[in-house]
Design brief:
504 residues; 7-stranded mixed sheet; 14-stranded antiparallel sheet; outer membrane lipoprotein receptor (LolB), chain A; 2 domains
Length: 504
Amino acid sequence: MTSRFAGIFAGVFAVAAAGCSAPTARSLADEALAAMGGADKVKAIKTLTMKDGAGTREQLLEPRHVGEAEPPAKLSKVTEIVDLADGRASLHYVIDNAGFMQDRHEVMTTRGGKPVGLDFVGMRPVVATSADGLFSWGTQNNPEITLRRNLVPILLAAADPGSTGAASDENFAGKAAKHAHIPMKSGEDVGLYFDPQSKLLIGFETTDSEALTGDVPAQYALDNYKAVDGVMLPHKITITKGGKPYSTVEYAGGAINDPAAAKDFDIPEAASKQADEAIAAGVFSPVTLDKIADGVFFARAYSHNSLVVEFPQWLAVVEAPYTDAQSATLVRVLAAQFPGKPIKYAAVTHPHSDHIGGVRGIAAAGATLLVEKAHEAPLRTMIETHHTHPIDDLEKRRSANQPVGGIELYDGKKVVSDGKQSLELYAFTGSPHAEPMVLAYVPTAKVAFQSDLWFPGTGGAGNPAAKQLYDSMKALKLDIKTNAGGHGGVAPFAELEKAIAAMK
């Protein structure tokens, strides 16, 4: 064979070998970017707005009885914005959970390059927190997760020259797919699934840390690709966590680099001071401490409150709700108010997600959780599972073999005391809200604390839950002079008596 023909055949064989080479994460990502409209167009995305969405949110963890199945809550008017350029995200939606309806808007924004959370819910004034102080019932538990799980940065990471991992043939959501793994800069491992026909990314799998259930395998299915300003984007996203449905949303449309998106991330003047506090503190959620009586204080937050009882050598807290950021702020406030007095106990009134969201944070501070035995399962899961995406304070302290709080169970009634001070916890049954509910009572001050059944200080009308609370208080024969609430504020017991009398 002449050298000329040998060279031709060598070139043909080289091309054939290249064409038959196994696909890699990078080659699959490059094909996906091309199918979306081109890598340059995707790289040019600074803000991505998906709007007019409708769907469901599951795993709310708000059952009446621990462990019972919950119907999915309905989501409507969903708008999600991710600002990829500045690391910001916004969730705006209406949630209808069996008749409980709220217009909610949670925003992770920045000031001077530092993250800030903004909470707009219903008629409440806007509140600024640290970014981890946000609580969402939207398609994610926090806007930060929405930003990390957006397909654009994931695909661009896969298209990096270092993404050389070989792909395999697998199934995803019942479809044949090309599968490859990539490491993200955050250290997370993400498994990608590409449609061999359309070349588009049809899903990915990774690990998410949920506030209540900890590290769980998470699957994101992407469907119904449509053009948005020249880029093909999925309009239906189905999320599964821990092997169970989490949320589904289908959007009517979207926009890329819409100038109007920037308005969502403006910090209102009403929240400007709090935003500065959040940045200075690092971990922050607004909490103020009001004295109710000698040794009894009301920790007033922007949504979910706590009761603080002072003992000669230590403190007890009733309810560590909403977020670890709120717990961390409360710990700081109490350390300044009561130097040298640790939080020994933190009591749980009921295990709904928005009323135990901060128990890991307060356990990290060393508090023992007082948990009625019927509530053990969700609290045990929450405290004992790993939380690494992102890692939280309890996880850090455990990893460093530092002391943390645990769980102490009781059956029906629990009393903690020191000197002349005591805190009594009573589990009562029959509430339409959760079964059982726990009522906290401080006999020295004749103060009672409960959550969700009655909002003291609001002058609201009585309702079945409030009536059942009132009857339970009477059955326990407690001498209550003052009511404090996980929602609302502090008011004389006569306010509740008047509301119940008006029901007859």
